[in-house]
Amino acid sequence: MKTLQLISRLLDYPDDALAEHLPELTYFIAESKDLTPAMRDKLLCFVAHYECRDLLDWQSEYDGLFERGRAVSLHIFEHIYGESRDRGQAMVELLKQYRSAGLELAERELPDYLPTYLEFCATQEEGAREWLEEISHVLALLAARLRDKESVYAELVDALVDFAGVEVDRDGLAEQVAKEERDDTPEALDKIWEEEAVSFSAAQGSACEQSVQRPSAAQFRDDKSITWVDAGNRTAG
Known about the structure:
This protein is mostly helical. It is built from 14 helices and no strands. The model is unreliable at about 195-235 (pLDDT under 50).
């Protein structure tokens, strides 16, 4: 499922390798037979937006978007359990699923990090859509909140909703999100930092010490991987 691996990479923190190979990604997306026209347009829109942007500006935008407040957190269970202790047990169970799929954890990242979850889904072949359906309500809400912030990252999450094949009342979600109180203002952030930190003792001992080894910009786990070449001589595997 190279599509899910691709979206996983685009949702992760932008680095030099990703920025350098955006032209090749454009070619890959345009030529991919696994994408519906709607999904293709959304992914191309995202890549085109950042293709001519300075990487430092992109990274700054990413930090400002995903590291301020919780509304658009890329940690799935943040939206499901919040501060509940149930989140810790859910981490443990998800980690078991990763290990049963043969995924080795290498970085300090919680298993409910969306790019990590997508990497796992990509190993599940026909079962990938079922795993996405499990979090489709989170994805739909996340996409609506990103769109409310006028972020092009909404295109990526919307593409995941399309991939899951679920019906979504986007207009209804947009109205709901418009009424939400912002949590990324200085006042809201101060309040969050004053709250007691959540502890996931059961999951953190394993999940934080090791996290799913996500592919680099030049690595995909499907039967064939993308081969990065000079933009003037693009090749997709």
